[in-house]
Amino acid sequence: MDLDALLDHYFDGADPDAIDPATLAAGKEKLAIDFGVEREPGRRFALWALMEALGFAPVPALAFPKDAALRRAAEEYLTVAWRIDR
User: Which residues constitute the domain of residue 25?
Assistant: First the structure.
């Protein structure tokens, strides 16, 4: 999935820092709903990763309770992201 396309789809722009608060809130709500109904694993993970980047993703155990592979991938993603931030 293309990050810029996702940002444009959900937030009407590719720069999260330039999005007005109302558009950001509406985009987060739409993104969370789409994540909740998405069934394709790769797309579901991409939506979760975007939510994580924006600071509102559920923890992997709650995001992927029935998919051990995706849960593990999400946990590894968080570990790598944490290491990069340090």
Answer: 3-85
* DSSP single-letter state for residue 55: T
pLDDT of residue 86: 82
Query: For tokens 């980047």, what's the residue?
Result: 53
> Cα separation of 19 and 30, whole Å?
15
Taking 90 as the threshold, does the pLDDT of residue 38 lie above it?
yes
Separation of alpha carbons 35 and 27, rounded Å: 12
Encoding tokens for residue 18? 């330039």
| Count of the separate structural domains present in the chain | 1
Cα Rg of the chain, angstroms: 13
Say if pTM beats, i.e. exceeds, 0.70: yes
